[in-house]
Amino acid sequence: MIASHTETFPQGTVAVLTIDNPPVNGIGSGVRMALGKALDEAIENPAISAIVITGAGKFFSCGADIREFNTPMSRQEPSLRAIIEQLEKSPKPVVAAIHGAALGGGLELALGCHHRVAQAKASFGLPEVKLGILPGAGGTQRLPRLIGIKPALDIVAGGDSIDAAKACSLGLVDKVVQSDLVPEACRLALEASVQTDALPRLSRAPISKPVDGEVFDEARKQAARRYRGCVAPLECIACIEKTLTSDLDEGLAFERERFQFLVNGDQSKAQRHIFFAERAALKLPDAKADLITIRKVGVIGAGTMGSGIAMSIANAGIPVVMIERDQAGLDRGWEAINGNYASSMKRGKLSESDMNARLALISRSLDYGALADVDLVVEAAFEDMDVKKEIFSKLDAVCRPDTILASNTSRLDINELAASTSKPSQVIGTHFFSPANVMRLLEVVQGDLTSKEVIATLFAFAKKLGKIPVLVGVCDGFVGNRMVSPYTREGHFLLEEGATPEQVDGALRRFGMAMGPLQMGDMAGLDISWAARKRMAPTRPAHIRYSRVADRICEQGRLGQKTGAGFYRYDAGSRTPIPDPAIDVLIAECAQEAGIERREISEEEIIQRTMYALVNEGARILQEGIAQRASDIDVIYVAGYGFPVFRGGPMFYADTVGLPKVLATIERFHEQHGELWEPAPLLRELAKSGRRFSDL
Ligand code: 3HC
User: Fold this and answer.
1) Angle 483-517-598 (CA atoms, 0-180°, nearest 5)?
2) Are 685 and 659 in contact (CB under 8 A)?
3) What is the DSSP pairing of strand 115-119 with strand 175-177?
4) Rounded to an integer, what distance in angstroms lies between the CA atom of residue 487 and that of residue 518?
5) Closest ligand 1 atom to the C-alpha of 103?
6) What is the pLDDT of residues 92-106, one digit of tens each?
7) Which helix (H) or strand (E) holds 322?
8) What phi and psi, each to the nearest 5 degrees, are found at residue 92?
9) Rounded to the nearest whole angstrom, what is the distance from the C-alpha of residue 24 to the centroid of ligand 1?
10) Distance between CA atoms of 431 and 320, rounded to whole angstroms?
11) Catalytic pick from 85, 88, 108, 443?
12) Nearest C-alpha to atom 53 of ligand 1 is from which residue?
């Protein structure tokens, strides 16, 4: 776990201690023990003048071993804090030689060293906040002492990494090198060994007070925007604020106490669940498939989805050709793309040269012949089976036999689409989320005949695009949209039973959802689900409850934000929902017509009716094999539907509440509201046997 060797120079001998714990040099109990011992030996050995700590493989170290948290392993001595204290107090200079990344506890280890040398491509960060915790090995106390309060707040409470050049300009590293990292670190260590009484130790460094007294308030405001509902960012900020009034020991004790509070809390358990769930989602049942190289992609349709998809492909440096039926459509898409990039540039998120490079990767054509040389086509045309079938038969004729044909459908049957081509094994669903150049989720829909190579290739492609792919099976709405139906249905029922739109949406926002189901409907456009309901009307069983509220709203021409009104009204050009008394009247009329007596609806009931509708459908989806794992459903909801990461997704949330309790409530709803609430057999099975979704 720690490889130790010496390097001898004319000025002296350096002990080089290499952390070797693949894949990310996580600092678990084994590494801590071995590092503590190796440090002791190097410090005691009179032949050694200085020490360099470095990492084997891709990274310096990416932090504490997260899997050890909440287990006895995390308490095994020595602690990371003790190691850092040991090396900071070392009478011999200790230099960190950093390549790849120094993250979390890895960076905290480097902060305990007297100097830091970095390779030009290295990155630095304290991403603990994204796991619902804070840097618990001195990071919140040493970093502000080294680089100042404001930049430390950005790094600790924001959680994003910075590159070596930025780290150097902030004074986080002493030197950036292109090559010869370890020799350079040895040289610096030997230089420092000449005058060991001047070794820079951050525990002794004074803290410079921020010029702007509002810096903490501003950080709290930013945290509330970026990490709404999360407690960890606020604790990170409190720890940094503590540096103004405490010495290092007091500050470390405070940090330790707040770390323990967070690491034992539900939020951090949920956030760590999502961290591992995202990685588990990448694991395919058939890991051995060969990958098809994607050099060029075609996108059919230059509407909102098509343009967004084309941008996300160009952003990954892959050439893409957009196809439309007419020039006007193509021009509209091209304008939207230009406008989008220009606004990113204005906001300083994209340089002009990068913008031009990305635009240069996107070509346009009205001719399917332009798809003769593409390796993948993503069809993002109108959501209609006949339209899509016609496109796929054209693709069948013009594309190479080995081209992958993907449909960006959000609910249609991939098997039916595949059957309309001569190569169903090459057909797959890719359900992007809007805006496709921003949203990270990608539901990869596996048809019955889709080949394992095509699935594996789509996964690798999605990763290249910076997306989180999740494998799902074919059914109406796949995982995400299929679960949204009962969730929204309950939102509408609750209106009839006595709630107002702002009460339903408000309860769910306070729960942590990015927005409630009614505001979401207004944003997506109410006409899409209206059309689907009209299609299904002839076959809808008459005895099953059906809410007319949404239909009546649409009949008034209120189709959501785009028409300035839906469940709410909107001022021109604004997306802020304004409660509309006309809707309260409409809802009351619908309730009366349906013979429903309106009553007070509690916040608890709103949460249970909507959340447990998600959970019950999720359990069916799991049992049917439409999702591979419960955690995949959680990833889909957190990454694609604004579900609060600090609750870990609907299935993890149900585990947190306790499945027997969830089942008992669903059984009560079943009695009260009828067959739509039939408990899913899997939920019954798990609750009865004392197991959880995460045990599956
Ligand atoms: N602990 C345990 N396992 C970890 C880990 C960690 N800190 N970081 C990564 N892993 C695991 C992953 O789960 C994955 O396991 P798998 O192969 O079984 O799925 C494997 O290492 C490789 O990880 P990735 O697939 O994510 O590899 P990438 O190369 O894509 O990304 C990375 C590498 C950028 C380091 C990314 O893994 C990452 O962001 N890791 C988390 C870093 C982090 O949050 N560090 C802080 C930890 S908490 C801490 O240090 C507390 C301290 O303050 C006391």
Assistant:
1) 110
2) no
3) parallel
4) 11
5) 45
6) 999 999 999 999 999
7) strand 320-323
8) -100, 145
9) 6
10) 18
11) 108
12) 135
Rounded to an integer, what distance in angstroms lies between the CA atom of residue 520 and that of residue 518?
5
- Find out whether the beta carbon of 513 lies less than 6 Å from any atom of ligand 1: no
Contacts of 477 (CB under 8 A, 6+ apart): 410, 411, 483, 484, 485
Which pLDDT band, with edges at 50, 70 and 90, does 411 fall under? confident
**Measured in angstroms, how far is the CA atom of residue 168 from the centroid of ligand 1?**
24
| Number of residues written out for the chain | 696
The pLDDT > 90 percentage for the chain reads 91
Instruction: Please indicate whether residue 593 is annotated as part of the active site.
Output: no
Residue-wise pLDDT for 294-332, tens only, equals 999 999 999 999 999 999 999 999 999 999 999 999 999
Ligand 1 centroid distance, CA of 62 (Å): 6
| Burial of residue 578 (number of CB atoms within 10 Å: 0-12, 13-18, 19+) | exposed
Q: Is 128 a catalytic residue?
A: yes
167 Cβ contact list (under 8 Å, min separation 6): 118, 122, 124, 173, 176
Per annotation, catalytic residue among 88, 128, 453, 490: 128
Closest CA to 549 of 600, 589, 513: 589
Residue identified by tokens 């099953």 is 544
Ligand 1 atom 20: residue of nearest CA? 23
135 lines ligand 1 (CB under 6 A): yes
| Residue that is written with structure tokens 């299935």 in the block | 651
User: How confident is the prediction for the chain on average, in pLDDT?
Assistant: 95
CB of 192 closer than 8 Å to CB of 174: no
**CA of 64 relative to ligand 1 center, distance in Å:** 9
The rounded Å distance from CA 276 to ligand 1 centre is 9
Q: Which atom of ligand 1 is closest in space to residue 66's alpha carbon?
A: 1
Q: How many CB atoms lie within 10 A of CB 564?
A: 16
Q: Count the Cβ atoms, other than its own, within 10 Å of residue 539.
A: 6
- At 533, phi and psi to the nearest 5? -65, -35
